[in-house]
């Protein structure tokens, strides 16, 4: 099983970031996604204990423009969620890649990170959007 | 100076720039100021003067109201003025071009209203003996015949009360058919293109299916490669829900192939008929391989809608699904019309009924009036004019604005925000349209286009009106292209300026409280 002894951040084509350390992955949406969405007004984070397969709809983020699904970047079990987002969804706009995190997944297969992007690849990907 | 016999001037004196006028009343000329109804009326006042009943017996078993519920009381003229004044702050199809198009409401011909108010249609009750409402039943049957003829489909369920209700009806019929085949447990996946209406995936989930999204291709249509890849293992396919023309305002050119692929996979083809108004009289969905499609009577057949009236979403069904339609439906035998309330035979218990009675009678009357007053050729021309008007707008507006896709559109023209300068958004353009006296277009939808602006003028607008609209929008688009920051403050001339949508969503205030209480908080 792939273990990450060093903290590493990956990005998905659906504009999620995922920071892995050990067998835990913290997930949120990228700054680019937050800017595209505009003011976030509601976040529905997944329940602790739920399990998802990579690519499953895991959370919902709603802005003044649109409601979007957030997909599980890795398969695994939710072990923590950012409950503060319920009362202060603006955190997602203010600190999308920090305090605005959505949840922590205890992932089951580290090899699934293989088709995720690193920072440079994601930057190039956004330029093409 | 011209003057009348009393020496009063009858022509205005030389115009000058108006001073900034603050009025005592708060009204602006003929636009009346209006407070909230709680501030206009008083809880101690009532608009009706009834004597207190004497000697009446309380039959409420001790639950009589003991104190006032705090509703404001107004006299009739106060109540009338309140709502007429509020209506001055609104926009309506009767005031001007409505770029939301038939999605909200297109012109409601007044003849429809006249016929719907005829006592024989307006003053009947669904529980009357059927022998006393033969004309109304015949009208339902005639409308059903028109719908079946126009769509090339053998059956129609008349009772769905709105487009989404019609989707529900069609997908429940598909469920019924899958149950009859013994495959309801295994066939659970419904394909929904990214360019479908937002209600489609919701309906599929509501009916117990899972949604699998198909990508849009660079032409704004179903990505056929993606579709085929989703059908490699097709044992769990229940069907597809496709909107045609789609929400990008484009005809799905591969629709026949899509229908064949779905049928080969053992699934059914639900078509969202919300945009049938673009093709009515030109294309019959039955010829395209559609198994079920709802028809929004307000979109295609001009009934009122959008806060103005109830919807109606009759759903046409193919031979494969006809047995799974809900009850009741009208049948004619020897010139006598009956409502069939119970079904027998295959699928008789698959569905049941969608609502208490037979559907939205008032809308049926209006829709059939529209059909009969236009005739088959007139309906076809309405669809052609809707498409012509949208393409005229597209060709004029694309001189500044960026069309989302190449080529001709159907009944609506879609633009992206690619032409705007950094910092100017679709929202700013929409708000500036209010200053020009127009309702904004559909914005940020469909999601497959960045900063989408979707404009549907409908068939009823004249070239002169289309030109006036284009000139207004082009002047705003030029400003957006040049990065004119003044757009960020629009609207300037509306009764209410730009609202704080973010705070309204994050911290909604859903109750009125007395102004001095708000100040004290």
Automatic annotation (TrEMBL), chain A:
One GO CC term, this protein: glycine cleavage complex
InterPro entries: 2-oxoA_DH_lipoyl-BS, Biotin_lipoyl, GCV_H, GCV_H/Fam206, GCV_H_sub, Single_hybrid_motif
Modification type N6-lipoyllysine: residues: 65
Annotated GO biological process: glycine decarboxylation via glycine cleavage system; protein lipoylation
CDD domains cross-referenced by the UniProt entry: GCS_H (cd06848)
Record domain Lipoyl-binding: where: 24-106
Keywords attached to this entry: Lipoyl
Pfam families: GCV_H
Note on how the cofactor is bound: Binds 1 lipoyl cofactor covalently.
Cofactor annotation: (R)-lipoate
Keyword Protein biosynthesis in record: no
Function as written in the Swiss-Prot or TrEMBL entry: The glycine cleavage system catalyzes the degradation of glycine. The H protein shuttles the methylamine group of glycine from the P protein to the T protein.
Family classification: Belongs to the GcvH family.
Subunit structure: The glycine cleavage system is composed of four proteins: P, T, L and H.
Protein name: Glycine cleavage system H protein
Species this protein is from: Henriciella algicola
From TrEMBL, chain B:
InterPro entries found in the cross-reference section: Aminotrans_V_dom (IPR000192), GDC-P_C (IPR049316), GDC_P (IPR020581), PyrdxlP-dep_Trfase (IPR015424), PyrdxlP-dep_Trfase_major (IPR015421), PyrdxlP-dep_Trfase_small (IPR015422)
Aminotransferase class V domain ranges (all copies): 184-306
GO molecular function, one term: glycine binding
Keywords, ordered alphabetically: Oxidoreductase, Pyridoxal phosphate
Keyword check for Cell membrane: no
UniProt KW Oxidoreductase keyword: yes
Pfam family for this entry, one: Aminotran_5
Domain Glycine dehydrogenase C-terminal: 382-481
Catalytic activity: N(6)-[(R)-lipoyl]-L-lysyl-[glycine-cleavage complex H protein] + glycine + H(+) = N(6)-[(R)-S(8)-aminomethyldihydrolipoyl]-L-lysyl-[glycine-cleavage complex H protein] + CO2
GO cellular component: cytosol; glycine cleavage complex
NCBIfam families per record: PRK04366.1
Entry function: The glycine cleavage system catalyzes the degradation of glycine. The P protein binds the alpha-amino group of glycine through its pyridoxal phosphate cofactor; CO(2) is released and the remaining methylamine moiety is then transferred to the lipoamide cofactor of the H protein.
Protein name in the entry: glycine dehydrogenase (aminomethyl-transferring)
Natural source organism: Henriciella algicola
